[in-house]
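**Backbone geometry record:**
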Amino acid sequence: MRNDMTSMHQNDFQELFERSRDEKKGLRVYFNGQSVPGLVVSFDDRTLVLKNQEFDRIIVRVASVDAVALS
């Protein structure tokens, strides 16, 4: 059951990552009690690359993502 839930959430996350990248919409990524706002530049199964007003490149491990909110 745990693997099914993880897979389901990863698919949901990937859908939001794609929308952020394709529609140039900002999102907020939550992980380890922290959050980072940004725009998705690219992603794969292991890493998510964001940028925001402060940083040109932010790299997050997809496995550490707890939640995603799309603006």
